[in-house]
Design goal:
alpha+beta; 15 strands; 5-stranded mixed β-barrel; globular
């Protein structure tokens, strides 16, 4: 297991993918042909469902599917893993989100995360966004982890685990290209004049992203390269300097 720091989460939430049933379900999903085959055979796109999950206000049960336009609410000690189009998602406990519809029923244009935490892997394709109370992120085909910190006035934690993303909030903008976890805060109030600030590695692991990537037939950047790196956004900020934060540049 790769190293990580916990903040407001417990170890069981980070090791969810290690359960035998979860691994078996993922293996079956891949072996049976993934999302396209599931649609053709009218099978569910839910990989794992634990605890109480509400789908559009009604309790979700195995055999049902998640579609774009749906609202998902997870209760305590609950979690949900599903695949939609060429995107895979893992919803942590006490989360609330809406999967936004793109050009078709199975095309995800983005996710609006209002509370809780979400791990995601996106294949390449049309422009997509993740929107939280304090951050908007443009997705270009990548693996990411997003968490809204309820005990910090809904401050957003966002990690670009691999790929390229565009972060923006209140005039502050960052373009992050990562091969191994660049993490940022979407601040409620500015810190040193910035609304996007560097963050350490929190609440997620390499193995989680590898699991989600596999569900859509991908490998993470570090799997492809055969090497990892430093897990935080501070190195990015140090390398880029003030130009990484247009809103913080001298006027």
């Amino acid at each position: 297991m790769t190293q990580h720091a916990l903040q407001g989460r417990v170890e069981a939430e980070i090791t969810w993918f290690q359960r035998r049933q979860t691994l078996q379900a993922a293996a079956a999903w891949v072996a049976l042909g993934g999302f396209g085959t599931a649609v053709a055979q009218q099978r569910s796109n839910v990989i794992e469902l634990v605890g109480d999950i509400l789908l559009n206000g009604a309790r979700l049960v195995m055999g049902q599917s998640v579609q774009t336009g749906d609202e998902i609410v997870s209760g305590p000690a609950s979690r949900l893993t599903f695949v939609l189009g060429n995107a895979a998602f893992h919803v942590r406990q006490n989360s609330r989100l809406r999967v936004e519809r793109g050009s078709s029923l199975n095309n995800v244009s983005g996710v609006r995360l209002l509370a809780g935490a979400l791990g995601s892997a996106f294949g390449s394709g049309s422009a997509r966004q993740i929107v939280t109370p304090t951050l908007t992120v443009g997705i270009r085909g990548t693996g990411v982890y997003t968490e809204v910190m309820a005990n910090e006035a809904n401050r957003t934690y966002f990690c670009n685990c691999y790929g390229t993303v565009d972060l923006a909030t209140r005039g502050d903008q960052v373009v992050s290209t990562s091969s191994y976890h660049q993490s940022f805060w979407g601040e409620v109030q500015p810190r040193d004049g910035r609304f996007i600030t560097p963050a350490p590695a929190l609440n997620h692991t390499d193995e989680e992203l590898e699991f989600l990537a596999r569900l859509i037939g991908q490998r993470t950047a570090w799997q492809v390269a055969g090497r990892t790196g430093v897990k935080d956004g501070r190195g990015y900020m140090e390398q880029r300097g003030p130009e990484a934060h247009p809103a913080a540049m001298p006027r």
